[in-house]
UniProtKB/TrEMBL annotation:
This is GTP:AMP phosphotransferase AK3, mitochondrial. InterPro entries: Adenyl_kin_sub, Adenylat/UMP-CMP_kin, Adenylat_kinase_CS, Adenylate_kinase_lid-dom, ADK_active_lid_dom_sf, AK3/Ak4_mitochondrial, P-loop_NTPase. It is found in: Mitochondrion matrix. Residues 130-167 are annotated as: LID. GO terms for molecular function: AMP kinase activity; ATP binding; GTP binding; nucleoside triphosphate adenylate kinase activity. Its EC number is 2.7.4.10. It comes from Zalophus californianus (California sealion). The gene is LOC113924861. GTP binds at residues 17-22, 131, 140-141, 204. HAMAP family: Adenylate_kinase_Adk, Adenylate_kinase_AK3.
Amino acid sequence: MGASARLLRAVIMGAPGSGKGTVSSRITKHFALKHLSSGDLLRDNMLRGTVVPAPFVEKTTFIDQGKLIPDDVMTGLALHELRNLTQYSWLLDGFPRTLPQAEALDRAYQIDTVINLNVPFEVIKQRLTARWIHPASGRVYNIEFNPPKAVGIDDLAGEPLIQRDDDKPETVVKRLKAYEVQTQPVLEYYQKKGVLETFSGTETDKIWPYVYAFLQTKVPQINQKASVTP
Ligand code: AMP
């Protein structure tokens, strides 16, 4: 790898529940690049009360309610952070989320690749609505991985289980639709630029080897750290 070797500028996209978090952490485990998550960045800045202008500092509710932070604030924050990472390859996660954000990012950096995780809507819905809790004890069940012995009933207390509002089908569907509406133009934008790489499937473990193989084609633009095993 000569001095002129370029660094990798990558973005990962995927709906909530698409496995984006898992895939991102596997990528950073196997490849030498910095992972920058906009959600983490925002939470961090909210906590420290820095960088985000005053009107938004108090607005943790922005995040709590799942509403998007205004584009100029988000873009300013992300680009500010990226200025510290110029000598690294990086993977952006959660940013850009809108077309204006993608365009602003483009003015600052040339994006090499956008990894798009495409998991069927119904599969994601099933994953995100699988959690049931027993309110009195806080015991948590997952219909897929850790179901109660009797449907809808706490194993120990024999009382009914409930779903948190966030985990109810109607909330989940709303969230997924909102994600789709926001990000569709971004996906189209990157598609037109010829940098969109879509990975489709229903299980993260089945999608991962393809993502891994794809990123290997980018070595030595990024350095590889270990083998494909998650
Ligand atoms: P996340 O952890 O990605 O779900 O982000 C948590 C919250 O941060 C979101 O609900 C938004 O309020 C905000 N947020 C994260 N990324 C962005 C972005 N690119 N643009 C605007 N708001 C964002």
